[in-house]
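User: Predict the structure for this protein chain, please.
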Amino acid sequence: MESTKLKRPKHKGSPKLFDNPILEKLTHTHISLPLIIFGVIAAALIYYGIIEKGFEAPEMIGLFVAGLFFFTFVEYLMHRYLYHIPANSERKKKISYTMHGVHHDYPKDKSRLAMPPVLSLIIATVLFIIYRAVLGDYVFGFLAGFLIGYAAYLAVHYSVHAFNVPNNFLKTLWHHHSIHHYRESDRAFGVSSPLWDHIFGTMPRKNPASRKTAVGQSIDD
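Assistant: Here is the predicted structure, written as structure tokens:
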């Protein structure tokens, strides 16, 4: 069965979202900034957990992997239920478009493939407070894994939109995300992994043509 979702036209370039030049500039982020920032924060959390809190390496690795795995779940939920929130009011349309709709209309806009670092740092701080309250000192390994999961998601997402499909096992991620953009926006929500799409039944519909989808072009081209 074909998706009933309407395909929006894809555009090149970078659209203007805000009249305020400062706000507009903040919507553009070079991909290297969040990767460096969260890599450094994750390393600092691991260092503090081992040196100051006395965690053994195997324990820290276990917490790190748990945080990494948990991020893939959060990524799926946010992409499916927050980024694709039903735009049933003008306010929701504006919020939805600013958060994610613009990315679907301009998938090749490399400067809008990551949240602004300031906003990301605020969210990371809030997560630290919440996870610390729930996990105690385990937060140092768990949050480190969570943040590296986010950094990995950003790296994969950027690579899918910026580079050609690789001729290795990673091409599955390219095809999966391309189907979400160019064929079925109500499917294939996982970017760093299709795991949760398998679990929650949102894998792409069985269609041979969808397997031929390539990043940057519609399968109908």
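The first helix runs from residue 21 to 26.
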